[in-house]
Design goal:
Layout (H helix, E strand, L loop, with lengths): L1 H12 L2 H21 L6 H9 L2 H15 L7 H17 L5 H25 L4 H19 L5 E2 L9 H6 L7 H19 L1 H18 L4 H27 L1 E2 L7 H11 L11 H20 L5 H27 L1
Antiparallel strand pairs: 1-2
Helix pairs in contact: 2-13, 3-13, 4-9, 4-10, 4-11, 4-12, 4-13, 5-6, 5-7, 5-11, 6-7, 6-11, 9-10, 10-11, 12-13, 12-14, 13-14
């Protein structure tokens, strides 16, 4: 009994604390908006919450791997939209079949992931600086490929509209939720049951110790950024299915929602600590907050203000937690 109590205390004072708080925040927000929002407790609103979670969820899953290593990816938002833009060029200009266009989206995002990995892993650039540079590069390159032209994906009523029904929504059913769950499981296995996951945590905890043990941490960092690129590509496909119209020079700022979801869910920006289940909780906290504010007819700008406050509180909690762990 005493051992179980001590384990519970360790959990609540360690990485599990922010996950517990995220669950509590999710419940409180849902109750609050259910009381003060208009038509919030409806099936349509719930589906809307799910719809707004898909591409942020995929971005956040990939970001979790990166942040656990002690890194960051400021380019994932622009790469997501940029890869979707290139896929649109493949469809509208190159006239490739829609399935091949989706593969083009994935390939473009993965290549940017490789590029980030080489910058951070091989050239040892600080992740903040490296991915900030990639943010601008992706904005420019993707716009050049598209000739600064807006690209459109097939509508539901068109011949290739099946891809929306398969990827995003079919007769009102949130198909995207199924894909998010499936790839969450894949990511969870990668992070918790493979060598990649073990080294991801080890690098974030103490990269120097990893190197001294004979493991080439640089190579594993590259692989982590490639995994991130893969999930950014999935986010790009969902983004294209959600909005259909892709505008050049956009996407900047979307990565902040992914970072926010990671932090809210308990992934430490210091590295070495984090979980995908916490990240998904963070994604839904953000989605409920965004949808709830709309149900109260508040300006969209308040979404950013409140999410910023939530992120600051989560980071503050992480700092306090890390200080306690160091003292212990």
């Amino acid at each position: 009994m005493g051992k179980e109590k001590s384990n519970l205390v360790a959990y609540l004072t360690g990485p599990g604390l922010q996950k517990v708080i995220a669950v509590g925040a999710l419940v409180v927000l849902y109750i609050f908006f259910g009381i003060f929002g208009r038509h919030f407790l409806t099936t349509d609103t719930f589906v809307s919450i799910l719809d707004s979670s898909y591409y942020i969820g995929f971005l956040a899953i990939g970001m979790t791997f990166v942040v656990i290593t002690g890194g960051i990816d400021l380019s994932s938002g622009t790469v997501m939209v940029g890869s979707a833009l290139i896929g649109g060029v493949a469809y509208n200009v190159w006239h490739l079949p829609i399935l091949l266009c989706l593969l083009v989206v994935m390939l473009a995002a993965i290549l940017f992931g490789v590029f980030n990995g080489l910058l951070v892993g091989k050239l040892e650039l600080p992740p903040f600086i490296a991915t900030l540079g990639t943010q601008f590069i992706s904005l420019g390159i993707c716009s050049v490929v598209a000739k600064v032209q807006t690209q459109t994906y097939p509508s539901l009523t068109s011949e290739d509209g099946w891809f929306k029904r398969v990827v995003y929504k079919n007769n009102g059913f949130p198909v995207g939720a199924i894909w998010l769950v499936l790839f969450f499981i894949v990511a969870w296995i990668l992070l918790n049951k493979t060598v990649l996951g073990r080294y991801t945590y080890a690098i974030g905890s103490n990269e120097e110790a990893v190197e001294l043990s004979g493991i080439k941490a640089k190579n594993w960092k590259i692989l982590v950024y490639i995994v991130n690129g893969f999930f950014v590509g999935l986010a790009g496909i969902i983004y294209a299915a959600t909005y259909s119209t892709i505008t050049p020079q956009t996407g900047n700022g979307q990565e902040m929602y992914a970072i926010a979801a990671c932090v809210i869910g308990g992934t430490s920006l210091s590295g070495g600590i984090g979980s995908l289940s916490g990240t998904i909780l963070g994604v839904f906290v953000i989605s409920v907050l965004k949808t709830g504010l709309l149900s109260m007819s508040l300006p969209v700008q308040w979404q950013q203000v409140l999410i910023g406050v939530v992120v600051l509180l989560a980071v503050l909690l992480d700092v306090i937690r890390m200080r306690k762990m160091k003292k212990a």
